[in-house]
Design a protein that fits this description.
Number of strands: 5
Strand order of the largest sheet: 4-3-5
Number of domains: 2
Strand content: 5-15%
Largest sheet: 3 strands, antiparallel
């Protein structure tokens, strides 16, 4: 567990040793890191240990988040290089709709925003549905924790 760059609003879990999933839970690992470096944050957000969604004794905790890093794509400046002129406008519009806005699309295209595995899959599906056999080519890949959940 190296420096995780925990977002300020990420709810951590204080269950620790009382939870069988603590070693695989991003919320528990984030709390562990914050507890070991108290100068990092003045205040933290925690999941409510009294809520019915929290189940320390079982594997049914609804607040569990996997600590397994995911493979994010970074940049897609050559995404359309192998697409014929016939398909490019249609494919590009469909790919743009995978993102929440055109601005997010352009940030993702330039590599300023990471492209989640879910969006990578959606883009690959668009390629396949349009008869493009070659999979999408992203500029680079990095392993990152999924802080969105």
């Amino acid at each position: 567990m190296s420096n995780m760059n925990i977002p300020g609003n990420y709810a951590v879990c204080i269950a620790g040793g009382s939870c069988p999933l603590a070693e695989q839970c991003l919320r528990a690992l984030a709390y562990k890191q914050l507890a070991q470096s108290p100068k990092q944050s003045v205040s933290i957000s925690i999941v409510n240990p009294n809520n019915d969604e929290i189940r320390y004794a079982t594997e049914q905790c609804k607040q569990f988040r996997s600590s397994q890093p995911k493979r994010y794509a970074k940049g897609m400046t050559h995404l359309y290089d192998h697409i014929t002129q016939h398909h490019i406008k249609t494919v590009r519009l469909q790919v743009e709709h995978c993102f929440s806005s055109r601005r997010v699309y352009y940030y993702s295209r330039s590599g300023d925003m990471l492209i989640s595995p879910r969006i990578q899959k959606a883009i690959a599906d668009i390629f396949r549905k349009n008869g493009i056999e070659e999979p999408p080519q992203f500029d680079d890949y990095i392993m990152e924790y999924d802080w969105r959940n």
